[in-house]
């Protein structure tokens, strides 16, 4: 990811309210746990088979279930560092027929990195475990770092799918990669939401109930499986699915027991989301202010800044500062 990508993301902001209405349906994959979580222990999934096709180790199917990742500190990324790469098919203009652009991925990465805790960093040759962001049919991620115990070789993560056209949805998947589950699967969720099984897609009812491959989206986890990290249930978590997730009739499958609240926002990290990241990765509970950028030489960051009309758009002026005469100072 280049500095230009992050500058574009900053210029456009995380809020994509001017974009077409977001479609989060790609997060509800029938063959994946809770719709967008990859558990490599269940190799019957076509997606999992593709992801781990290069592996030839029976240990992939033994133990080490990702169901308990947030309790398993071995799934944490060491040294507050998450190496990552993104596919070259993501461009400034989008990938294939989607509206995903590098700046949207950059915006998601920046939203997490600005916490100054665990950070996504460019992969180096020495990094054997890393997050691999690439296009795919569907939008999904494993929970936490899979690790080097399997032949000490890297495991490429497919994190962002065709349907993740919003920085907030990408953040949701990146938080899975950091080690976090869905909010609606907390042990105490029945105190806060009502599950309407009559509206749930046929064959997915047990996604609200007990673990069963392909039928587990709404499984309630016990406190022995998931660590709430001292935080209360959060309707506003970016990890909470919307009210109509897995609905067969567009009627709510989840209804908050508190009136006047909404669930399923993908605009920002909630305060609870932030505290969980900080606590899981042993950072301070106080979110530090971002370090102000240091003055740098004012240069154009694109080769076509002299083209007619380039300075008419604000986002272009942010990368053509010299030509457009908007250098600071």
Automatic annotation (TrEMBL):
Species, as recorded: Anisakis simplex (Herring worm)
Keyword ATP-binding carried by entry: no
EC number: 3.4.24.-
Transmembrane segments: none
Keywords assigned: Disulfide bond, Hydrolase, Metal-binding, Metalloprotease, Protease, Zinc
UniProt-recorded name of the protein: Metalloendopeptidase
Cofactor: how bound: Binds 1 zinc ion per subunit.
GO terms of biological process kind: proteolysis
Source organism, top-level taxon: Eukaryota
